[in-house]
Design goal:
- This protein has 344 residues and is α/β, with parallel strands linked by helices.
- The chain has two domains: 194 residues, Periplasmic binding protein-like II (D-Maltodextrin-Binding Protein, domain 2); 103 residues, D-Maltodextrin-Binding Protein, domain 2 (3-Layer(aba) Sandwich).
- Helices cover 44% and strands 15% of the residues.
- It is built from 14 helices and eleven strands.
- The radius of gyration is 23 Å and the shape is globular.
- It starts with a helix and ends in a 25-residue tail after the last helix.
- The relative contact order is 0.17.
């Protein structure tokens, strides 16, 4: 036994000596094991520009390398609904998911005693427009069972929750689900195409940039309400979220992601023409560059890591019992890395 102890002591001493030599000569020390592959999902269109620019310019790979993580593989997928995004995140198929605050809050509420999903950062602050081709609709109060409204996912997407908030505002909290039966789950490109074509049952779409502006160019389509009107001001539309399991096991990768999205936002803000061209290339969209730049120049369209108005969603969802747990502040459902930002 004594020989074993002496042997172990000598091995530790040799290991310590090697580390001292490495430190003295400034040689690289192997980083603690973190993932070598990161899976990121995004939705459709302009609200997800920061993730698109990250992908196009390989910014996460760049910042991971700078952090001493070596060459990592980053894979991107496009997912159009909050429920699918959430399922992928829970299963471990995704490292980072993106979506509106309501789907993230639902997952935060349901995983508090398990994998603990939280927000990583915001992505975009911009209004959504509830557009319709029904000439009889002037406000949401005019909606009837003859109207079909496209939303990202029935009852749970940001569009669905905004519609519930609009119903509660118009008719009282007890009537928050008044329009749920009118909704149809569709991804944004399909919903916009359905509204613009005039074919099919969907005559109203809770849309998003750039689709909502293309819709308004079609004669007969008009806006019933903006999400900013429903919310009483600007609000985060898209944000990034992850599990505490991933966050805690991969601190350097997590920080590299934050650095990458911060750089992507800076690129958007300084080179809108170039970003517009990248967007059109990546989405195979037919819009003119000038039209995309006009959207990016809109003062109501902001790309920022700072959460805006997310507690309004949380308060409403708790009020209608869609959340069992009431957060005290936005910091409760975001990781600590961004809690120094002036969020809400």
């Amino acid at each position: 036994m004594r020989l074993l102890i002496e042997g172990a002591r000598h091995r530790l001493q040799r290991a310590a000596a090697v580390l001292c030599v490495v430190a003295a000569f400034g040689l690289p020390v192997a980083a603690s094991a973190e993932v070598k592959e990161v899976q990121i999902a995004r939705g459709f269109a302009i609200p997800h520009l920061p993730i698109m620019i990250m992908e196009h310019d390989k910014l996460l790979e760049k910042h991971a390398l700078a952090a001493g993580l070596g060459d990592i593989r980053v894979t991107y997928s496009t997912i159009g609904g909050g429920s699918v995004m959430n399922d992928s995140l829970i299963s471990g198929a995704l490292s980072f998911g993106v979506g509106g605050p309501p789907p993230m809050l639902t997952l935060w509420d349901k995983t508090r005693s398990g994998i603990r999903v939280k927000g990583v950062c915001a992505e975009a602050t911009m209004p959504l427009l509830l557009n319709t081709r029904n000439p009889n609709l002037k406000t949401v109060k005019d909606l009837t069972e003859r109207d079909k409204i496209a939303v990202g996912a029935v009852k749970v997407s940001i569009q669905a929750r905004l519609l519930q908030m609009a119903a509660a505002k118009a008719f009282g909290d007890a009537e928050f689900a008044r329009f749920d039966a009118l909704t149809v789950g569709m991804n944004s490109p399909d919903a916009s195409a359905a509204l613009r074509s005039g074919a099919g049952e969907v005559n109203t779409n809770f849309s998003l940039p750039p689709f909502q502006y293309a819709e308004l160019k079609v004669p007969g389509i008009h806006t019933l309400v903006s999400s900013n009107d429903i919310m009483g001001g600007p609000h985060t539309f898209t944000m990034v979220y992850a599990t505490s399991t991933f966050h805690d096991a991969n601190p350097k990768t997590f920080q590299a992601f934050l650095a990458a999205i911060k750089e992507a936002i800076a690129i958007i803000n300084r080179d809108k023409n170039g970003v517009a061209r990248t967007y059109l290339q990546m989405t195979n969209s037919k819009e003119a560059v000038a039209d995309i730049v006009a959207i990016l120049d809109d003062p109501l369209v902001q790309f920022t890591m700072t959460p805006v108005g997310t507690m309004k969603f949380a308060d409403f969802m708790y009020r209608i019992e869609a959340l069992k747990n009431k957060p005290n502040s936005w910091q409760d459902y975001f990781f600590e890395e961004i809690q120094n930002l002036p969020g809400s």
